[in-house]
Amino acid sequence: MSVDQNTTSHTKKTQDAMRSGLNSAAASAQRFTDQVSQTYGITGEGREELTRQGAQNLEVFTQASAVLTRGVQDLSREWFRLTQERLQKNLDDFGALARCRSLPDVMAAQSNLLRDNLEQTVESTRRIAEVATRVANEASQALTAQTKKAQRVA
Hints:
Layout: H1 3-40, H2 44-98, H3 103-153
Helix pairs in contact: 1-2, 2-3
């Protein structure tokens, strides 16, 4: 199974688990709303408003969770891609070391290996940070959009 297929499979399982958990949370929220309504004597419009707000909050949570799940999937893909690139580069560099015939050749190859590792570490860190920043921005935008939508409805 390829990395993308494996990641997609895990993401689907995570989404299914989240969906099941959110359905359970929705049922719990409805029971809680019913209990609060009974305890405080909230009826009619007040009860409907309480239910509506609970549903909106659950919707915001659901959308933010979906964005974060996709983000974790994107981060996983990027991490696996970087790991594969690093492994291939290490194999190439060790092949170059193995072909060395003199001490100066070994020193030059080792120097290149060290420089390449440092450059790739910096580049990998930058790429992971970019994906993480994008995911955080998407989650923030989703939350902001849902909050504005809820405010317009209220």
